[in-house]
Design a protein that fits this description.
Layout: E1 8-17, E2 22-26, H1 31-42, E3 47-49, E4 55-59, E5 68-73, E6 76-81, H2 84-97, E7 103-111, E8 117-123, H3 131-143, E9 148-155, E10 158-159, H4 168-173, H5 179-191, E11 195-200, H6 207-210, H7 241-254, E12 262-264, H8 273-276, H9 279-288, H10 293-310, E13 314-318, E14 332-335, H11 341-349, E15 354-356, H12 359-362, H13 373-377, E16 396-401, H14 409-416, H15 419-428, H16 434-450, H17 465-479, H18 485-488, H19 499-510
Parallel strand pairs: 2-3, 2-4, 4-6, 8-9, 8-16, 9-11, 12-13, 13-14, 14-15, 15-16
Antiparallel strand pairs: 1-7, 5-6, 5-7, 9-10
Helix pairs in contact: 1-2, 3-5, 7-10
The protein binds ligand TNX.
Length: 520
């Protein structure tokens, strides 16, 4: 089973046959047992509520937020938890333990996660995956006790939310979720213990917005959706008041679709070239006494955070945003890039809340040649110059799947499975012996395949030698392909596109021992 129980299992005598129908006494809301009933039905078990249920689910306020005690005995099964997520994880454990023949070993399981944030980031902007496909992934996450889907819903290549207020947004991008679908996905996730955090990336990565409403860039000039990955110059204008008014109306419409109390506002890779020659940005800086373009981005983020606050939400930002001294007070930071290590180190040392998504360790768009199962599992959270200890350790792990190069759901699933389960294990119980973990992972993947999910076959989990070199180089070349003539002027002057950068990146991936100086 993945993840391993992070507590203890006390074996008892006997094997218990699960009755059909399963009767449940439940102290919580219907939501807490809904996924259980659906999954049970798939294996031919009916379930119904009853005062003297075979399964009794009781509130135990003493337990930590997601912790549970599952006690399986002849007389019946007892689940104790303080919150709904604890109930969901207990019932998930139970379901995974029930064998083909509907029986389960008598035992008592005490379990709780080590990290509060156990996430998957899914980019549906570069390539779109429909609501049903997203739900399938959410179900696999829940079975691995992961609790956050970070849904990257807009980027240079597309905007994916129906907007009644600004319909050109979804009309321009063609592939999008209706508001009803979004509510449905968030509710489905909620029943599975998964919080859905939307990301509207800004002020950079916004051609999805600007292709529909170019008036919110500095030049106001027409632009199209990006056709390839990369970093683009065209970004939102941080000087014009009308940009903020637009974003306020837009967020007022979007925020209520998501029950989460967090909202990711991106903030990564925002080239400042256009701001530098924009009179409105210049005037805003003067008015606010701002002296750097990084701080102007900080000012922008603070304005957005104020809008979120009205909706009871706090912002998450990629760690690029820490280059600014002006920051939303209640933010959380998501660490992906070592390029911003100095401010990240300071932020972490000061006790700022953060999520670990190091691109060298947790990027699932990268092939196994770069991020193998074993390498992920053996990750030690080494941020080079960022010293941290238990007191300011991350909220948890989030594996990221970006989709510039991923066009079909089969490819998407192969990138995610089994590696998402490595992140789930690290976040729930931490690493132990790799061989032992790998055995469990192989069993787990058999179950995942039975559910019709595409997985990367075992032989490709940890590529070695020539094959590894080739696979990694091919991916890098595709990722950093030269822009088309049409797009050339739109691409940011960034070292990240150059061959030197690719070489540096690859050398970091192929560095088996120690760290590559260039990056720390
Ligand atoms: C960097 S990670 C990005 C994304 C790309 C990803 C590709 C981050 C905050 N920005 O825009 O998709 O690399 O791996």
């Amino acid at each position: 089973m993945i993840p391993r129980i992070n507590g203890n299992v006390q074996m008892r005598d006997g094997v218990i046959c699960i009755p059909n129908p399963i009767t449940i006494r439940n102290d919580f809301t219907e939501k807490a047992v809904h996924a259980f009933s659906e999954r049970a039905a798939e294996s031919g078990f009916q379930s119904e509520t009853a005062e003297n249920g075979f399964i009794s689910i009781v509130k135990n306020e003493v337990l930590e937020k997601e912790a549970y005690v599952l006690s399986i005995r002849k007389e019946g099964i007892r689940v104790e938890a303080s919150g709904e997520q604890g109930v969901i994880w207990a019932l998930t454990t139970l379901q995974k333990k029930i064998g083909q023949n509907g029986s389960v070993q008598a035992e008592t399981v005490t379990d709780a996660p080590r990290a509060v944030h156990r996430g998957l980031h899914l980019d549906v902007a570069r390539h779109f995956f429909d609501a049903g496909e997203v739900k399938r992934i959410i179900e696999q996450m829940s079975l691995a006790k992961m609790n956050v889907l970070h849904w990257h819903l807009s980027d240079d290549q597309g905007w994916r939310i129906e907007s009644k207020r600004f319909p050109k947004l979804h009309e321009t991008s063609a592939d999008y979720y209706t508001q009803e679908e979004i509510r449905d996905v968030a509710a489905y996730a909620g029943e599975r213990g998964v919080e859905v955090i939307p990301e509207i990336d800004m002020p950079g990565h916004t051609r999805g917005i600007l292709a529909a409403y170019p008036e919110y860039s500095c030049s106001g000039k027409k632009t199209g959706l990006a056709k390839a990955g990369g970093v683009y110059r065209r970004i939102l204008c941080a000087g014009a008041d009308k940009t903020y008014k637009f974003l306020e109306e837009l967020l007022d419409e979007i925020c209520p679709l998501f029950p989460s109390e967090r909202f990711h506002i991106g903030g990564d890779e925002a080239p400042k070239a256009e701001w530098k020659s924009c009179p409105a940005c210049g005037a805003k800086m003067k008015e606010q006494g701002i002296t750097s373009y990084e701080d102007l981005q900080g000012y922008f983020s603070v304005q957005i955070a104020e809008i979120l606050k009205k909706h009871g939400k706090r912002p998450i930002l990629w760690n690029d945003s820490l280059e600014s001294r002006i920051r939303p007070k209640d933010m959380q930071m998501q660490y992906w890039s070592v390029d911003y290590n100095k401010p990240s180190a300071e932020y972490i040392a000061q006790g700022g809340q953060w999520i670990y998504s190091d691109m060298f360790e947790l990027y699932l768009d990268y092939p196994h040649a770069m991020t193998s199962v074993k390498k992920m599992y053996e990750n030690q959270i080494d941020l080079g110059s960022c010293a941290y200890d238990a007191k300011n350790s991350p909220l948890g792990y989030e594996a990221c799947v970006w989709t510039e190069q991923i066009t079909t759901v089969e490819e998407l699933e192969k990138r995610i499975f089994p590696r998402m389960y490595v992140a789930a294990e690290l976040a729930w119980c931490g690493a132990g012996d790799y061989e032992e973990f790998e055995d469990r992972l192989r069993d787990e993947m058999k179950e995942t395949e039975k559910r019709g999910i595409s997985i990367t076959p075992y032989k490709d989990w940890n590529p070695e030698g020539q094959k590894r070199q080739q696979e990694a180089s091919a991916f890098m070349a595709a990722m950093h392909a030269k822009p088309s003539d049409e797009e050339k002027g739109e691409v940011a002057e960034s070292s990240e596109m150059g061959e030197d950068f690719q070489k540096k990146l690859l050398s970091r991936f192929f560095q088996e021992e120690g760290k590559c100086e260039a990056f720390y």
